[in-house]
């Protein structure tokens, strides 16, 4: 009926349809019926002979046609084999539906249930993500045949082993499948790997099979899961718990996880200690902003675990992080001993990059102690080591740090020399952000020289705006680098805005109490006070104009005059 929708329900049977049971109709000759009627005359002998010959001819034609049809049918059967129920599903249903039905028909109920739960969970995740599109998208599991096939193959192997009572083989199959999904280049399948690792841990902790499992396999499974938690999921606390369980089993054993992981590994206990060392360092990094003492203790624990297995590179890494935390907290006293130990380890290991990092931290330490000469000495050592080993990135960094330090000292020639060298190296390295920052350093160096001359001109001028003069002195004392602003297109915008606000404020104050006569009097006072002790004169880079540094009392004295 028009407007109605008719639905057809198809019931699939578990048994394969046997099309051979269908028999073709037998070829039988047609039977002609001869009836004698009253009007029919009996045939003569000649007519009977002709009629018999005609019947034989018709029978021969029918037999030939039937033989040709039979031959054609046999050829069609050979060219088009019969389809099984699974093959029909593959063509008629979506891949994931046919896969689930096939697993259920074959008796792999656990595999069917697990994959079905994963698909449902994935659909729920995508539904929720629509409400929060900021979350990174991931592919639909049910639309990825390769991933579904990998799950089906691995889980069926595990289920077969479980039914056969081979618990170790079940754990190994599940672990290999988890490694398959965790070793993928993209992180889109990490959620499946996590579920599989949880199944591995569940097998390991199952009391019913605890005595049947090999301790080595259990320890390896927990170590691999802890490594995945640290590197992929960054779940530090759970990773620490799992790797500690692995260490308890592997202590004193010479087990190795190279075969399962497919890469060269050290003894499992050593690898577990090193993994715990990395976990403590990550914890220290996260705690730096919240609890400084806790972060320091984490670094110390990392150092102890590295020292336990005599891993020099890990020891140096722990000491480096410890020094960074102390310097960031402004506590230079404990730094000396740790930094010396770090530099010694780097020299023993011939770690050139580590040695460069040590010189950078040493310069930061001496700057915190206000030992300027030692700061320059440390940075020059950094530059020397970088040049000897042709490390262009460190060479550029050394020149840039020297330029920044000399900027704070007001040494114009030294600023330009190092800033230009750093800029050329960054151009060679194609480091655009560092190029822009170093270019700003060069501009600041030129501005320092011009500013000194500008101040001298102000002192010799007849008309001086006291507010402008004061704001200039205030800006000069700050020595704010332009590149502290993130926006590099106009990096000085924030500083200029503050200067403008302060200028306007000071102008309003000055204009309310000063008039033109008082301004003229103060200008003459400036020229008379040029040689007084409150002004400290030095030589500029050109050696011709004085470099001026004015104390706060200098401006206050102007404001206090009637």
From TrEMBL:
Coiled coil ranges: 496-523
SUPFAM superfamilies: TPR-like (SSF48452)
Segments of skewed composition (Basic and acidic residues): 11-34
GO-annotated biological processes: cilium movement
Spans through the membrane: none
Domain of life, source organism: Eukaryota
Keywords, sorted A to Z: Coiled coil, Cytoplasm, Repeat, TPR repeat
Keyword match Repeat: yes
Compositionally biased spans, kind Polar residues: 1-10
Major place of residence: cytoplasm
InterPro entries named in the record: Bac_ResReg_Asp_Phosphatase, TPR-like_helical_dom_sf
GO cellular component assignments: cilium; cytoplasm
Subcellular location: Cytoplasm
Location of region: Disordered: 1-56
Function: Axonemal protein which is implicated in axonemal and/or peri-axonemal structure assembly and regulates flagellum assembly and beating and therefore sperm motility.
Name of the protein in question: Tetratricopeptide repeat protein 29
Species per Swiss-Prot/TrEMBL record: Graphocephala atropunctata
């Amino acid at each position: 009926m028009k407007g109605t929708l008719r639905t057809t329900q198809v019931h699939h049977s578990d048994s394969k349809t046997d099309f051979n049971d269908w028999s073709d109709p037998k070829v039988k000759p047609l039977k002609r019926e001869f009836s004698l009627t009253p009007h029919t005359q009996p045939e003569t002998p000649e007519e009977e002979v002709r009629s018999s010959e005609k019947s034989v001819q018709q029978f021969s034609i029918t037999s030939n046609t039937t033989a040709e049809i039979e031959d054609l049918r046999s050829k069609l059967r050979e060219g088009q084999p019969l389809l099984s129920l699974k093959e029909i599903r593959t063509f008629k249903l979506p891949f994931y539906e046919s896969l689930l039905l096939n697993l259920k028909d074959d008796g792999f109920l656990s595999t069917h249930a697990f994959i079905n739960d994963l698909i449902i969970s994935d659909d729920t995740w995508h539904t929720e993500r629509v409400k929060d599109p900021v979350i990174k998208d991931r592919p639909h599991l049910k639309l990825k045949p390769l991933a579904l096939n990998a799950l089906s193959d691995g889980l069926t192997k595990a289920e077969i082993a479980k039914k056969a009572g081979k618990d170790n083989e079940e754990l190994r199959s599940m672990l290999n499948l988890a490694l398959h999904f965790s070793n993928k280049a993209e992180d889109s399948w990490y959620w499946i790997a996590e579920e599989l690792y949880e199944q591995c841990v569940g097998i390991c902790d199952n009391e019913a099979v605890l005595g049947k499992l090999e301790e080595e396999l259990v320890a390896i499974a927990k170590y691999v899961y802890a490594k995945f938690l640290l590197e992929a999921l960054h779940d530090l606390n759970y990773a620490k718990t799992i790797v500690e369980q692995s260490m308890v089993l592997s202590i004193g054993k010479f087990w190795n996880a190279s075969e399962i992981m497919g890469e060269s590994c050290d003894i499992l206990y050593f690898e577990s200690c090193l993994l715990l060392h990395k976990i403590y360092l990550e914890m220290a990094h996260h705690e730096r902003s919240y609890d400084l003492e806790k972060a320091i203790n984490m670094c110390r624990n990392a150092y102890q675990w590295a020292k336990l297995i005599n891993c020099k590179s890990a020891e140096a890494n722990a000491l480096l992080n410890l020094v960074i935390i102390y310097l960031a907290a402004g506590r230079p006293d404990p730094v000396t001993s740790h930094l010396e130990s770090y530099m010694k380890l780097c020299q023993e290991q011939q770690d050139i990059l580590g040695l460069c990092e040590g010189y950078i931290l040493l310069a930061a330490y001496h700057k915190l102690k206000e030992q300027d000469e030692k700061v320059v000495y440390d940075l020059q050592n950094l530059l020397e080591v970088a040049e000897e080993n042709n490390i262009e990135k460190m060479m550029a960094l050394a020149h840039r740090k020297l330029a920044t330090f000399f900027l704070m000292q007001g040494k114009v020639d030294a600023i330009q020399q190092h800033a230009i060298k750093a800029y050329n190296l960054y151009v060679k390295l194609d480091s655009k952000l560092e190029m822009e920052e170093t270019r700003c350093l060069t501009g600041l160096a030129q501005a320092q020289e011009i500013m000194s001359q500008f101040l001298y001109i102000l002192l010799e001028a007849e008309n001086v705006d006291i507010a402008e003069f004061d704001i200039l002195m205030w800006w000069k004392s700050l020595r704010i680098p332009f590149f502290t602003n993130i926006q590099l297109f106009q990096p000085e915008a924030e500083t200029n805005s503050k200067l403008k606000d302060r200028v306007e404020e000071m102008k309003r104050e000055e204009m309310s109490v000063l008039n033109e006569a008082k301004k003229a009097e103060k200008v003459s006072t400036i020229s008379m006070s040029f040689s007084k002790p409150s002004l400290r004169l030095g030589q500029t880079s050109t050696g011709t104009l004085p470099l001026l540094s004015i104390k706060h009392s200098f401006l206050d004295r102007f404001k206090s005059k009637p």
